[in-house]
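queue> pop job 88
queue> type: inverse folding (structure -> sequence)
queue> payload:
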């Protein structure tokens, strides 16, 4: 619940929690096959995605699905309103419920990630190239920042993506049920590809999602190849090295506070070449597509738009309130074609109440976009989820296109390495 303080700002109020109101158990017919329950589970997920959480109680539910599907002996769905927290906060809370399967006394660990050291050529650019190189780098950063901030503003006022097989433009999209599909990629394999192509893990998986998106658009409507299509990438603004405990996050002075601390960035999805649409042996064209996507992302890495946008959102919320800030983000989302975001998960297998966790995925529903792609790492794999408006986008076909794109990229990387 929320109350308004003396300063006029809304704050959360502690209320009682009745677990019976929050824990739901799905009921399906008994004695059916895993294939049957797979369909039931997908229908159930679609149904609860369109239901609003009751505003008379805390905005979260836990749904237990105690039937074997094709992928697991059972499923647990945590349905949590974004007002409670962002991905970082909610992942930290989720991990506090889990233990390591191999040794519950040890903490869960995250994948190690290294900060890239400057090469000798980088050192020359940064230190020894003189004032001209330094001015050039600063000017490039300023221009990139200005361009990104202008795009952010434009997307809230007058600029929208073209209508396409992944964007209907219908204002009621966020109220409709979703259909979901999931896929898994080896993190070691992605690291091999990124080393061969000189990219990052995010470049590789984002390139695969973008290429798969374009392949899906072409498969549904070949005339949509030239559509202006933008992905809104949601980013955590904390310095993520590990997840803090809930007790640490709610302290007054902390580097990783609880709540919604995120920013966003618009990334233009490159357009397909004519030959790439064949999808059979055009690995060279797939490689060029991924390099084009990587170049766009690399340029934006030099931009200061992400931290500045986060500060502007914070200021906007302070001046006009949380609802106005949420409306601003909603308008940004509504003008783009898709959402993509990722989270870091643990390396070790987890267990909850002595039940081993085979896989973990997260979805976003209620957004004014027809398709969202979310990524989380777990046990050396990247778990990718596609949440698409039911009846408008076929998530299984979309999934197949992303898998085809990854196959083409992998083939490109092997060819390039030889």
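queue> result:
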């Amino acid at each position: 619940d929320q109350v308004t303080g003396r300063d006029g700002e809304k704050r959360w109020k502690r209320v009682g929690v009745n677990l019976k109101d929050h824990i739901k158990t799905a009921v399906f017919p008994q004695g059916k096959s895993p294939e049957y329950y797979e369909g039931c589970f997908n229908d159930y997920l679609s149904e609860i995605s369109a239901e609003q959480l009751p505003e008379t109680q805390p905005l979260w539910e836990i749904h237990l699905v105690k039937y074997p599907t094709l992928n697991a002996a059972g499923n647990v769905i945590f349905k949590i309103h974004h007002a409670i927290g962002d991905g970082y906060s909610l992942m930290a809370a989720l991990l506090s419920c889990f233990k390591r399967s191999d040794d519950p006394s040890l903490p869960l660990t995250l994948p190690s990630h290294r900060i890239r050291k400057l090469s000798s050529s980088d050192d020359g650019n940064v230190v020894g190239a003189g004032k001209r190189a330094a001015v050039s780098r600063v000017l490039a950063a300023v221009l990139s920042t200005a361009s990104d901030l202008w795009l952010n503003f434009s997307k809230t006022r007058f600029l929208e993506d073209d209508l396409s097989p992944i964007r209907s433009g219908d204002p009621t999209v966020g109220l409709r049920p979703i259909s979901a599909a999931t896929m898994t990629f080896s993190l070691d394999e992605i690291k091999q590809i990124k080393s061969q192509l000189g990219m990052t893990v995010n470049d590789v998986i984002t390139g695969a999602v973008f290429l798969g998106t374009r392949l899906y658009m072409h498969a549904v409507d070949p005339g949509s190849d030239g559509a202006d299509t933008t992905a809104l990438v949601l980013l955590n603004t904390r310095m993520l090295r590990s997840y803090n405990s809930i007790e640490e996050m709610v302290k007054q002075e902390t580097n990783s506070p609880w709540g919604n601390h995120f920013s966003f960035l618009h990334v233009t999805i490159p357009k397909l070449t004519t030959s790439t649409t064949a999808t059979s042996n055009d690995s060279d064209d797939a490689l060029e597509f991924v390099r084009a996507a990587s170049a766009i992302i690399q340029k934006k890495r030099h931009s200061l738009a992400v931290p500045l946008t986060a500060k502007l959102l914070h200021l906007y919320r302070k001046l006009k309130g949380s609802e106005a800030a949420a409306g601003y983000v909603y308008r940004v989302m509504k003008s783009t074609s898709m959402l993509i975001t990722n989270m870091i998960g643990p390396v070790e297998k987890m267990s909850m109440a002595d039940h081993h966790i085979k896989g973990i995925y997260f979805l976003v529903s209620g957004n004014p976009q027809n398709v969202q792609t979310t990524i989380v790492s777990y046990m050396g794999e990247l778990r990718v989820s596609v949440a698409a408006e039911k009846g408008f986008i076929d998530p299984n076909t979309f999934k197949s296109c992303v898998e085809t794109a990854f196959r083409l990229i992998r083939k490109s990387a092997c060819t390039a390495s030889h």
